[in-house]
Design goal:
It comes from Cohnella phaseoli. Keywords: Membrane, Transmembrane, Transmembrane helix. It holds the Pfam family PAP2_3. With 285 residues, this protein is mainly alpha-helical. It has 14 helices and no strands.
Length: 285
């Protein structure tokens, strides 16, 4: 059952998912939320610079693989960090043999994970909650800045690659994953799990939004993504634990920075942005 034929399919699916999630989370049509987001980019230099920083760190992650090849780290810490686990993912896969479940988890891993991140920026901006916009932005920056050194110097191979008993189920729905997606995710960039850390980061931030339905969805997304990294045969339990720690640290730092920005003498920028971007009626919680 092939769901994704190329990265174009993933991109189109993500764009559609972002629109649906914005409508769901903000309670407004995606175009109105998009207009609020672009107004914020032009009205606040601080807002724009933080957004540019987030985009820059995403590009840094893309080129991390080139830096990794240049450093040419030859050792492998897979057995040292995860050897105690065995091949329990194989037992999980054998106990739940379902094409539907494979497709469901792959959609969360490939599409809804990144769509939730994109939608979050628009939802918090439209709601006038600049504090959460900045908290999420700096938390994402923290996730990547803390994870990249581990990817460079603590190489841990993906579960299916390290143990032949574990199947890489992603290929069942995305046969060309290795050719099209692998350039964005190194085979030994497992520890910590960024899918875990970022999905939990988004859920923790959403919990402070006051938008109950969005908070519930963000936690469902995080739980399914964490299940997916195991069921699809990608990550180890050790990776997930490290991802939870990374999320906790990044969210704590992100909220602290956002709070300082609010109390900064130039926080008038935040106040003006909030007033201009306030939705015509309260967002339902």
């Amino acid at each position: 059952m092939t769901l994704f034929h190329s990265m174009s399919t993933v991109t189109y699916s993500t764009a559609l998912a972002v629109a649906v999630l914005i409508w769901f989370g903000a309670g407004r049509q995606p175009l109105a939320v998009g207009m609020a987001f672009f107004r914020a980019l032009f009205q606040s230099r601080q807002y724009l610079l933080v957004f540019i920083a987030v985009i820059a760190i995403l590009f840094l992650n893309k080129y991390e693989l080139h830096l990794e090849n240049w450093l040419n780290v030859s050792y492998d810490l897979t057995a040292a960090l995860t050897g105690w686990e065995g091949a329990w993912q194989a037992k999980l896969q054998a106990s739940l043999p379902s094409d539907t479940l494979i497709g469901f988890t792959a959609i969360f891993y490939l599409v809804l994970f990144q769509a939730t991140m994109m939608a979050s920026f628009g939802i918090y901006t439209y709601a006038g909650n600049m504090k959460l916009y900045y908290a999420l932005s700096f938390a994402i920056l923290g996730n990547y800045l803390l994870a990249v050194p581990f990817y460079l110097y603590v190489p841990v191979n993906e579960a299916w690659y390290a143990d032949s008993q574990i199947r890489f189920l992603m290929l069942n729905v995305f046969p060309t994953f290795e050719q099209h997606y692998r350039a964005l995710s190194g085979i030994n960039n497992c520890f910590p799990s960024l899918h875990t850390s970022l999905s939990v980061t988004m859920a923790l931030i959403a919990s402070r939004s006051g938008i109950r339905r969005w908070s519930i969805f963000a936690w469902i997304n995080a739980i399914v993504v964490i299940f997916a990294i195991f069921y699809l045969g990608i990550h180890w339990f050790t990776d997930m634990v490290a991802g939870l720690v990374l999320a906790s640290v990044s969210v704590y730092v992100g909220l602290k920075i956002a709070a300082r920005m609010e109390s900064h003498p130039h926080s008038g920028i935040l106040s003006r942005s909030r007033n201009k971007l306030e939705p015509p009626s309260p967002v339902e919680s």
